[in-house]
TrEMBL record:
The modification 4-aspartylphosphate is found at D59. This is DNA-binding response regulator, LytR/AlgR family. GO terms for molecular function: DNA binding; phosphorelay response regulator activity. Keywords: DNA-binding, Phosphoprotein. It holds the Pfam family LytTR. Residues 178-238 form the HTH LytTR-type domain. Coiled coil: none annotated. It comes from the Bacteria.
Length: 245
């Protein structure tokens, strides 16, 4: 199995000796990083909450805190693989787990389960990215509620007559938000304010000089304010576009 991404794993079981096989499988896969191995479920809960865990491999029958209580105590449940030789917890964990396996599972079957878990991880990451890259802005007419601006497609924004206009690949939207508010939501990089009336996406810039930027595709020319140019020029040194000579 080839995978260029890395996924962190936690193993929680009060008898880690029984998890030796699972731990060996995890350590043998180069795209998995064993982040936590803990026999005390209470300490394990603290570690999972404190650190970034993509995949949680969890036993069910544990003292002090059984597997179901462990899951209920988590604020955010990682992608879950229940690893238990007892089947009575299948129903209680159905909402959480992508697989319910025995501790004696074979390597090939384990790798199939891991692929399923990785697919779930990737879907969660994609959903999170989409959520993070969409902002909600009040519509120009209050009765219309809010509009959603896809930041991945946003080339630049212009404030004009107290209305913010959003320009991107194949779309144009208008809403009510101040430039200051927008600048706080869309962090640099890749978004950067270059004029009192303009905020641009650095990924969408084709070229620039000390007075204007030229946008890709649309070839729109946008003015750069004198007070914004020094910080903009500095940012572009580490970005994709170089100044015109």
């Amino acid at each position: 199995m080839e995978n260029k991404k890395t996924y962190t794993v936690a193993i929680i079981d009060d008898f880690l000796e029984e998890m030796f096989l699972i731990q060996k499988y995890v350590e043998d896969l180069p795209f998995l990083k064993l982040q936590i191995v803990e026999s005390d479920p209470v300490l394990g809960l603290e570690e999972v909450e404190r650190r970034t865990v993509d995949i949680l491999i969890l036993d069910m029958q544990m003292p002090r805190l059984n597997g179901v209580a462990f899951l209920q105590a988590l604020e955010h449940v990682p992608v879950l693989i229940v690893c238990s030789n007892y089947t009575e917890y299948v129903y209680d964990t159905a909402l959480y787990q992508v697989a319910y396996i025995r501790k004696t599972i074979g390597r090939l079957d384990f790798e199939k389960v891991i692929q399923k878990a990785i697919q779930e991880c990737d879907e969660r990451r994609a959903a999170l990215k989409k959520e993070e890259n969409v902002i909600s802005v009040k519509a120009v007419k209050a009765a219309e509620g809010n509009i959603l601006v896809d930041c991945d497609k946003l080339g630049y924004a212009e404030i004009r007559d107290k209305v913010m206009h959003f320009y991107g690949d194949g779309y144009f939207l208008s809403g009510r938000i101040t430039m200051q508010e927008l600048s706080e939501v869309l962090k640099a990089p890749p978004f950067m304010r270059i004029h009192k009336s303009f905020l641009v996406n650095l990924d969408y810039i084709d070229s620039f000089n000390s007075r204007v930027v030229v946008m890709k595709k649309s070839k729109e020319i946008i003015n750069i304010g004198d007070e914004y140019y020094p910080s903009f020029k500095e940012a572009m040194k580490t970005w994709q576009t170089k100044p015109q000579t």
